[in-house]
Amino acid sequence: MQDLPETGKKTPNLRMIGIAPPRIGNFRPARGFSRKTNRFGSFAMLTKIATVLMTALMAGGMLACTSNPEGEEGSFERAAQNAGRVADDSVITAKVKSALAADPTTKAHQINVETFQGKVQLSGFVDDDEARRRASQIAQDIEGVREVKNSLQVRDSG
User: Fold this and answer.
1) Residues with Cβ < 8 Å from 69, sequence gap 6 or more?
2) Which residues partner with 119 through β-bridges?
3) Which residues, other chains included, contact 12 with Cβ-Cβ below 8 Å and sequence gap of 6+?
4) pTM of the model
5) Is the Cβ–Cβ distance between 22 and 15 less than 8 Å?
C-alpha cells in the first residue's frame, strides 16, 4: 500500500495486485514475456544479463577454438599467411608484367606471367632467343622472385 501525500489515504500498489503500469510509446513485450519478473526486477535487467552471458559464452568459445599448444599453427594463422602470400604473389606478378612491358626487347610480345609462392612462370611466344633470355632475366631481377620457370617458346620465322 502507498500513502497518497495530499489525502493521507492508502492506495494499493498496482504491481502488487498484478496490474501492469501504463505503456510508454508502442513498446510491447514479445508474446510469453512480460515486463514484470520475479527475480531480476525488470525486463531490461533480464535483457542485460542475457546479453552479458551470451557475450561471455561466445568469447569463451572463440578462445577455445583458437587455442593451440605452442609451436602449432591454427587455421586462422594459416589463413592469414595464405592471404599474405597471395597478395605478395599478385604484387610480384604486377611488377614482372610492368618490367616486361617497359623493356624494348620484350614489350611487343604477349608474355603471360603467373606467380605462386615467389616462383614465377613465364609462358607465351617470342620472336627470338634474345627476347626469351631477356624476359627470364627481367623476372629474376624483381624483388621477391625466388625462381623463374621460362616456358616461353620461340616462333618459327617461316
Assistant:
1) none
2) 116, 147
3) 1, 2
4) 0.49
5) no
SS3 9: coil
pLDDT score recorded for residue 47: 82
- Distance from C-alpha of 110 to C-alpha of 103, rounded to nearest angstrom: 13
DSSP state of 58: H
- State the DSSP code for 121: E
Nearest to 127 by CA among 153, 98, 90, 91: 153
pLDDT 10s digits, 55-110: 888 887 777 666 555 555 566 667 666 666 666 888 899 999 999 999 988 876 78
Helical axes 129-140 vs 75-102, angle rounded to 10°: 140
Instruction: Give the H/E segment covering residue 119.
Output: strand 119-126
Q: Rounded to an integer, what distance in angstroms lies between the CA atom of residue 14 and that of residue 93? A: 75
